[in-house]
Structures are given as structure tokens and as C-alpha cells.
Amino acid sequence: HAADAHRTDLMTITRFVLNEQSKYPESRGDFTILLSHIVLGCKFVCSAVNKAGLAKLIGLAGETNIQGEEQKKLDVLSNDVFVNALVSSGRTSVLVSEEDEEATFVEPSHRGKYCVVFDPLDGSSNIDCGVSIGTIFGIYTLDHTDEPTTEDVLKPGNEMVAAGYCMYGSSCMLVLSTGTGVHGFTLDPSLGEFILTHPDIKIPKKGNIYSVNEGNAQNWDGPTTKYVEKCKFPKDGSPAKSLRYVGSMVADVHRTLLYGGIFLYPADKKSPNGKLRVLYEVFPMSFLMEQAGGQAFTGQKRALDLVPEKIHERSPIFLGSYDDVEEIKALYAEDE
Ligand code: AHM
Ligand code: MG
User: Fold this and answer.
1) Reaction(s) catalyzed by this protein (predicted)?
2) Ligand 1, from 76, 265, 271, 285: best to mutate by most atoms within 8 Å of Cβ?
């Protein structure tokens, strides 16, 4: 029976990616190995996040743990775990993390053909109150055998070979695209495995939710202001949109992907380039949105066509359902 097969024939993320990669005759399992190290990092952070409250209590007894080491903050801990996992995979050459000002260049003995850009624990303002947070990552291939440089990651998002995020929420979910659609895997804690639960996610063509930090409204530009006004007071007889804003990009984008709608982090007078980082926030989420049938726009162009000049560069971003992003594109076009 189909139902029995489901329970006894588990599609783990490793099996899924092995299947996908076997379509490429030149594939030698490197990507699968890299991904399994990313998955390890996600499982570690998931367990750390779930124990975070407890670690705090222990911390209160004194700032050091029983080994006499100072307790590391969750975001620093997560970064250390990902950097170690990625380096030890033997499949990476350049790493860019939100937590580290400089890129990490892997030593020759451990080098491999991939470059990984990531935010190990995004949504820092939500860590201490138990609201969903996540890890975001994007993967490029190294296209030469010379000494790696930051130029190897200062490439447009459309050159990424894979992108994904892991959300540490009411369940732990990993959402991944290797360029053939978007697939969601849920961590089965009893198995310690991510199991395919959301195959081929497609974002609704139009949504009824908008997601933005409206506290910044006084500093917005014309098109963003007009768009949000339209969400609240539509003049074409359509119903007003609902507002949802967690303040964790992973949670807000995840909801947008599943329910449809639009997520905005626009430019404002105080932050002319917005807040979110091109390499490890804007690009991976834009990659996933396009793969799911949605769009991602910067206010000027397709987000994935940006060519970053610095590893921690920022950009405004509008992403979500195809039709909703079309509307904001029209407002920016009118404004020119
Ligand atoms: P962080 O990297 O410091 O955690 O900031 C990124 C977060 C995103 O997850 C979220 O979309 C955004 O910042 C929220 O910003 P704001 O609090 O300005 O609305
Ligand atoms: Mg971040």
C-alpha cells in the first residue's frame, strides 16, 4: 500500500539528493557529501536552539560551564559548528559567514570545488524569546584551480548551484533547491533524519499577505509607500491584505513560500541599501522564490542579477508571489 510504503520507504534528504545528482554523469558525490555536512550543522543548531533556554539557566549560575569554559552565545556557537563542518567536508574552498568579517579560505589539504555563503543563525532579535530563527545558505562552484579569492563568491545569484534554509520552528524544516524546483524536508527527531515532506513547493501565483517592518514607514521611498497603502486600502475592490511579520527572514519567507504573498525589506532614508545582505540572505531566498515560481526584485532589477562588490553588501528586496511582485515592479517603473 502507498501508505505503508510511505512509512517504510523513507525519502531522506541524502537519498533525494543522490537521486537528483545521479542524473549528471560527471557527478562523483561531492555535492551530496557537502550537503550532508550542512545538514549536520543544521541538526546541531536545531538541538542547541531547543536547549537554549536551559543553557541560559545554567549560565545564570555563573557565566562559565562545568568545564570552566565561558558559555558561547548561540550565534557564535552556530557559526563555529558550520565553519568546522564545511571545512572538514573537504569539499569547500571559500566560506563567507555573516558572523565573520573576512572570508575563510580553506587550507589546500582540505580544499574542494564548492564555495558556501551562509548566515548560521538569522533572526538574532528572536533568539532570546523562543521565536523561530533559521540558517540560510547558498552554494557556488569554483571554476578554476588557482588560489581561491573573494572574487569566487562575488558572483551574481543566478550562478548559484544550490540554495536553502533551515527553520528552527515548531518543527525543524530544511528547504532546498539545486535548481530543479524547491523541496522541503522535516527533521524526524527520533531518526535524526530530514524526510521529504514537501516535494516540489510552488508559491501561489497571488497571495493575500504582506510582510514588512512597518515601523520604518516614515523613511520609505514613494513606490514602497504606495504599495503598502494599496495592500491596506485597495482601490480596485479587492480585499485588503493581511499583515504578518515575524522579524526572522527565514520564518517570513517560509510562510510566504507556502501561503503566498510578498515579503519586503525596502530601502529607507536611514538604510539606503535596506538591511538584508546580498550574498547569504537576498540571493538564497531569491533563488528559492524563482524556483518555486515566484519573483525577487531589488527595486531596480531582478535580485539574482545583482553582482555584489563586497561580501557583506546589502540590498533592498521584494520577493514572493509572481503577481504581487509584478505590482511592486510596476510602481518602481512608474517612479523612474
Ligand atoms: P540579523 O542577521 O541581525 O538577525 O538580521 C536579519 C533579520 C532578518 O531575519 C529579518 O528579516 C530582519 O532582520 C528584520 O529586521 P527588522 O528588525 O529591522 O525588521
Ligand atoms: Mg542575518
Assistant:
1) beta-D-fructose 1,6-bisphosphate + H2O = beta-D-fructose 6-phosphate + phosphate
2) 265
